[in-house]
What we know:
Elements: E1 2-9, H1 15-21, H2 28-36, E2 41-49, E3 52-59, H3 62-77, H4 81-85, E4 89-92, H5 94-105, H6 116-130, H7 136-155, H8 165-176, E5 186-189, H9 193-204, E6 210-214, H10 217-227, E7 230-233, H11 237-243, E8 246-249, H12 260-263, E9 270-274, E10 291-295, H13 296-302, H14 309-360, H15 366-395, H16 401-411
Parallel strand pairs: 5-6, 5-8, 6-7, 8-9, 9-10
Antiparallel strand pairs: 1-3, 1-4, 2-3
Helix pairs in contact: 5-7, 5-14, 6-7, 7-14, 14-15, 14-16
Amino acid sequence: MNLLSVGASYRTAGVDILERLTIAGSDIPAVLQKLVAQPYIGEAVVVSTCNRVEVYAAVTGFHGGLGDVCNVLAEHSGIGANDLAAHLYVHYDEAAVRHSFRVSAGLESMVVGEAQILGQLRDAYHAATEADSAGRMLHELMQQALRVGKRAHAETGIDRAGQSVVTAALEVAAATFDGDLAGRTGLVVGAGAMGALSVATLTRSGVGPLQITNRGASRAERLAEAYGATAVPFAELEAALAAADVVVCATASTEPVLTGELLAGRDKPLVVLDLAVPRDVAPEVADLPNVTVVDIDGLAASRRTLPAAAETAAVEQIVAAEVEHFLAWLRGAEIAPTVAALRTRADDVVSAELRKLSSRRPEFTEEQRADVSRTLHRVVQQLLHSPTVRVRQLAAEPGGDQYAALLRELFDLDVPHATQADAVPEIGGQA
């Protein structure tokens, strides 16, 4: 099996594409089952956030696996395969490992170093575990990616400022109010993970009074109580908007929540931060007087919050070392079925010879037959011990996959999924 990562992010696709690609949490189990039902896909994990949709898969061939993933994404999004291909990035084997570690460390995030991606990866891994779509390879990849992300944040200062998409959005909003949001009235629409992060960030920025509204009133009330904010019934959204200076929208709605009709007639500046994918704010809102809309596309264009080059370099070094460590494990894991097949072949040969001996020497007692059997097995195991230990060591080194291939060729071993008929060396651009 080989690793394949296919996805689209804010770097390769606009919000119009991402909002069609995005996979709601309730839909992820069905998409995972559809992926692993494809002929070339054995395992799958889906990551869907406000600015990226990715599939990590263990596949039996590059071209077949890529075609399977693209077909599932095209069917889900309703975007034709050819049109979708223009917005996708692809990583294979080592490049897929490196990409997953860079994602977990925050190097691929819109705001480099943000820590929210760790929680999103954890949720994606949990969903795959619940759907039983992650096998040995993706269990190991996801566990190591989460560990690498935690290590990067713990050992470097890449997230020292508590950066996130929300903080970057607030920097844009602050420019409308002379660089200071303190004392401005805030409203957060949505009480999910992004809504909670928005409330926390707005509170730290001095925004207040702060109101929260959500279709599910209980979640808004719990969030408001935790931060000293005020929960507003969703039915009173229009009145809450009229009082607000800064609005953050972060719902899971598939239709616009804020429309031109709700926001028409503003006589004071309003900044609306649309952090949802699909977008919460209808396109006509951006044309209203006194209303400024900042969405994911606008944030991607600004890229306002970047860590120092030294901090990024330190994380890159961690990622590089961890990629080598994972690849060594992967090479060792790949040789194991071949070694097991070799030992099984040896046992089969011994058993066949013992049956022949039994027919030629019927006078042997059961005790004698047992002695001969133990001796033959012991000799074969001793002969195989040193070569199999050594081949495991060699397989863990770069280029070690050739040793497994040589063993299969020399002993004519049939190892399932050991061949890579349509594999390619390494493919994939930056996400």
